[in-house]
Design a protein that fits this description.
Alpha-Beta Plaits; alpha+beta
């Protein structure tokens, strides 16, 4: 088992930008990426009956969620390349953010992501970054929230955060695993199909968005789901919450982006007052970690059971696609006959991480034919029903 400290970069972009994103990753010297299907949700004005009473409806647009890993000292450079190739700074195109992570995988030899400390291989890209590609405001502090609810219950929550002007929700789908099996006959009351909703909000408004989600989705009640939040650094954020007709030379989203650049942060548009505990600190409870287990399709269930035996709670299973990039050296390409992958996210106390990793290793996650890895990130806070 080998651990690597990396920057996890997540890019949520309109599906039409797929070729541009892959070109940017190849140009940066990255070897591979994981891709997940989803949709970005916004509000749209619709003409009502006889065009007399207009109405506002939710509108979906297809999106892809890219997940890849890079050396920490190259994260901002790679984000700048992606932003330049795709025009993510334009409202409505997508979001791009970075967070520190650890990657745990098997013994060296054929792995897709190189060690950031090695200083070797194609990960170092194609030369120095031109000044024109640098991010104008650097990376900004944001909070990323992940909310898991029962299938069909995400629309009301998405509409609420859109109407409050908090963010553009991103929705994908998964299946609940593990916890239902502990409930006996009661498990029939908890649907297996889940909606996974991602929110990216300015750091100052993270607690507010969390409270709204808990209240609206009733996450403090049994079997309704849960939410967790992480601190990230954003290079681009989709702010196009409404697709109404443009009536000026600049949209409101472009004006907000310009003010963000002038102010140097998003703190000027916070809608909540600072909340401080004793000594300026807040008590968010015990340290938590998110363990994302990625493996070949069809194998995740066995590893979730192993993690639960080591103390983990429930998990959410989602489908991924693995993409190796044309510029990757042949010796670093995966040889799996299928590029279909599964990922399970487990939120666990940080002090259980080593025990769960050992259980996963004993169950064979890091064997070559499984194509398994574990991504570990820090969770700032999680909320669910505790009983």
């Amino acid at each position: 088992m080998n651990k690597e400290r990396v920057s996890k970069i997540t890019c949520i972009a309109a599906s039409s930008l797929g070729s541009s994103i892959l070109s940017a990753l190849e140009d940066s010297g990255l070897r591979d990426t994981f891709v997940q299907r989803g949709k970005q949700v916004s509000l749209a004005d619709r003409a009502g009956m006889f065009r007399l009473v207009p109405r506002v409806e939710l509108e979906d647009s297809a999106a892809d969620i890219y997940r890849f890993y890079a050396p920490p000292d190259r994260a901002e450079e790679i984000c700048a390349r992606i932003s330049d190739f795709t025009g993510l700074a334009l409202p409505g195109r997508g979001s791009l953010f970075v967070e520190p992570a650890e990657i745990v995988r098997g013994a060296p030899g054929g792995e897709a992501t190189p060690s950031p400390e090695s200083g070797e291989g194609p990960i170092h890209g194609k030369g120095a970054l031109p000044d024109r590609l640098r991010l104008p405001s650097g990376l900004q502090d944001y909070t990323a929230l992940t909310c898991i609810v029962q299938r069909g219950q995400g629309d009301a929550l998405a509409r609420t955060v859109l109407e409050m002007g908090l963010c553009v929700p991103v929705v994908t789908y998964g299946q609940g695993m593990g916890l239902r099996n502990k409930l006996g006959l009661l498990r029939i009351t908890i649907p297996v199909d889940k909606e996974v909703i991602y929110f990216l909000v300015p750091a100052a408004d993270g607690p507010l968005a969390e409270n709204i989600a808990v209240h609206k989705a009733r996450l403090d009640r049994p079997g309704q789901g849960f939410i967790y939040r992480c601190r990230v650094r954003a290079a681009a954020v989709n702010t196009r919450m409404s697709r109404s007709r443009r009536r000026h030379v600049a949209s409101m989203e472009q004006v907000i982006l310009a003010v963000d650049s002038l102010q140097g942060s998003t703190d000027w548009r916070r809608i909540t007052a600072p909340s401080r505990g004793r000594g300026g600190q807040t008590d968010e409870g015990p340290a938590l970690a998110c363990l994302s287990v990625i493996c070949d399709e069809g194998r995740a269930g066995d590893f979730v059971r192993a993690a639960m035996e080591a103390g983990a709670g429930g998990a959410t299973l989602m489908r991924l696609g693995y993409r190796d990039l044309p510029g990757a050296a042949a010796e670093h390409r995966e040889t799996s006959p299928s590029h279909a992958r599964e990922t399970c996210d487990l939120i666990v106390p940080a002090d259980l991480t080593d025990d769960i990793l050992a259980a996963l290793a004993d169950r064979g996650l890091f064997e070559p034919e499984v194509y398994g890895l574990v991504e570990i990130t820090t969770v700032e806070k999680a909320v669910t029903y505790r009983g």
